[in-house]
Design brief:
CATH superfamily of the largest domain: HybD-like
Helix content: 10-25%
Strand order of the largest sheet: 2-1-3-5-4
CATH class of the largest domain: Alpha Beta
Shape: elongated
Largest sheet: 5 strands, mixed
Number of strands: 15
Structural class: alpha+beta
CATH architecture of the largest domain: 3-Layer(aba) Sandwich
């Protein structure tokens, strides 16, 4: 360590990102946990480069400082307006100009509006301009309850909108044709980084042999079970062990791939062309 580096203050600012998704709420209070639960679902789908997810239920007032350097911010929280449970409200940034003052705010009542107001106060010009809030109307906030069915449906709507409008552009372009893969002699299937990231963003899949093809079906995340796609190298290529799925078949060498939109699965011929 050089003499000057010891006196330099550490860089404590969070790294910038293209999209920041913040889920606010209390996981222990039924539908009030919509924000943190949604963040967990997004994580299981796979987080593309340039995106960052924050559990606002545990981050507290630090949520405001997480916004520094973000290009676009999405905040998800519960609502209690008296509307039909599960109703989704999308509040664009232009409607967030007038927010309540910060007087009396503490960690036990820190919500999405407080987070944005505090960020504007603390970050000043560094506070992002592009902020959108999604609110889902609650059915109940009983202690220890799970998310209700209406709120689960509302959450899925929000996930699809966040994916479509914010995250899809950050995911790798899989191109018009899928890249070839390679079967190894020790029973692994190697997938190039672009194919793995584009088709299997959560690094989890199930595999099955049908006729002379191996089918790989993406899963939403490791908690769903299945096979894990493990990173092979810094380039992001993946390997998945398929030896047990292949059974007595001996397969090695490169193979072409084709994506089946109807089955939502990757089809890989086992026979050489």
């Amino acid at each position: 360590m050089s003499p000057t580096s010891a006196t330099e203050p550490p860089d404590l600012e969070p790294p910038g990102c293209a999209v920041l998704v913040i889920g606010c709420g209390n996981l222990l209070r039924g539908d009030d946990g919509i924000g943190p639960v949604l963040v967990r679902h997004l994580w299981e789908r796979g987080v593309p480069d340039g995106a960052r997810l924050v559990d606002g239920g545990t981050a507290g007032m630090d949520v405001a400082f997480q916004m520094r350097g973000a290009g676009r911010v999405v905040v998800v929280d519960a609502a209690a307006t008296g509307s039909e449970p599960g109703t989704v409200f999308r509040v664009p940034g232009a409607e967030l100009a007038d927010l309540p003052p910060l007087e009396g705010v503490h960690t036990h009542s820190f919500r999405w509006d407080h987070a944005i107001a505090l960020a504007r106060w603390a970050l000043g010009d560094a506070c992002p301009d592009d902020i959108t809030v999604f609110l889902v109307e609650v059915a109940g906030v009983e202690f220890g309850a799970e998310l209700s069915e209406p709120v689960l449906r509302g959450m899925e709507q929000v996930i699809e909108m966040v994916e479509r409008d914010y995250l899809a552009a950050l995911r790798p372009d899989i191109g018009a044709a899928d890249d070839p893969v390679e079967f190894t002699a020790d029973g692994y299937l190697r997938l190039p980084a672009r194919l793995a990231a584009g088709r299997f963003p959560s690094d989890a899949a199930i595999a099955a042999v049908r006729d002379d093809d191996l089918w790989l079906v993406p899963l939403t995340g490791p908690r769903s079970g299945g096979l894990l796609l493990k990173q092979r190298n810094p380039a992001g290529d993946r390997s998945v062990l398929v030896r047990e799925v292949l059974g007595e078949r001996v397969v090695s060498g490169p193979r072409p791939t084709a994506w089946d939109d109807e089955q939502k699965a990757l089809r890989i011929p086992l026979r050489e062309a």
